[in-house]
Write a structure and sequence with these properties.
The chain contains 10 helices and no strands. It is mainly alpha-helical. It has one domain. Helix 3 runs antiparallel to helix 4.
Length: 242
């Protein structure tokens, strides 16, 4: 549903009269969009053929570590409290992403590595987009991601039609996706890439909480500890980055 995000960002760009970004920004956005698509494909493929208890935490941790490492190189070391928060956040991602038990067979580790590196690099390139570029940059992200997925569908001869019964949910996901990308971009422009990346990597915590609240899924002890670690991480990063 990249078209939904693209249309929304084009309208927002026109209404806000935001200037079209320079070629360097367009390149960063396009690479970020392609990397993000590769990361999601790796994650979903890993979840479909491997063990969730391996794929989810490995993808989450790599997606957090890659932009943190780049942020340290480009922006310097954060404060000690921030480092403690980063460590607590990584622990949180691992704990809330773990699945109890799990079937045997293939682990899906290779796809998890692709997923984590792709998502992490996407955050890096989006984080390098200069301040003042938002709507048009996100439109470029969606164009690049959409074109890449079209190539994958054509080469792999995959089914591309969205069933009508899930269309409203797909549109909702597309709106939330572009909103999340926009908020991450604003956060990275306003502060440190490392901090923005590690906080955004806590999305599995939200997933677990919503699954428990809306789907009545059982919250395990590791989930509770992970959610607590996420709260501690947010507090430490906020205190150290303030």
């Amino acid at each position: 549903m990249a078209v939904v995000g693209l249309v929304a960002m084009v309208i927002a760009g026109v209404v806000s009269r935001e200037a079209f970004p320079a070629s360097e920004t367009v390149a960063l956005a396009a690479i970020g969009g392609v990397c993000g698509s590769i990361g999601l494909l790796g994650l979903y493929q890993g979840l479909s053929v491997g063990r969730m208890g391996v794929v989810a935490p490995v993808t989450g941790v790599l997606a957090a570590i890659v932009p943190v490492a780049v942020g340290v190189v480009l922006e310097g070391l954060p404060q000690p409290l921030v480092w403690l928060g980063i460590g607590s956040a990584i622990v949180a991602v691992v704990l809330v992403s773990r699945a109890a038990g799990g079937r045997g067979g293939r682990s899906g580790l290779e796809f998890a590595a692709v997923g984590g590196l792709g998502i992490g690099l996407s955050q890096v390139f989006l984080g390098l987009i200069p301040e003042g570029s938002l709507f048009w940059a996100l439109a470029v992200v969606k164009v690049a991601a959409g074109l890449f997925l079209v190539v994958v569908i054509l080469v792999g001869r995959q089914q591309w039609r969205v069933p009508r019964r899930v269309l409203p949910a797909a549109v909702g996901v597309a709106v939330l996706d572009i909103t999340g990308n926009g908020l991450f971009l604003l956060a990275a422009q306003a502060g440190d890439l490392a901090i923005a990346a590690i906080l955004s990597s806590l999305y599995p915590v939200t997933t677990v909480i919503l699954a428990a609240a809306l789907l009545q899924e059982r919250v395990t002890r590791s989930h509770v500890v992970g959610i607590t670690a996420a709260i501690v991480a947010i507090v430490l990063i906020g205190a150290g980055g303030g």
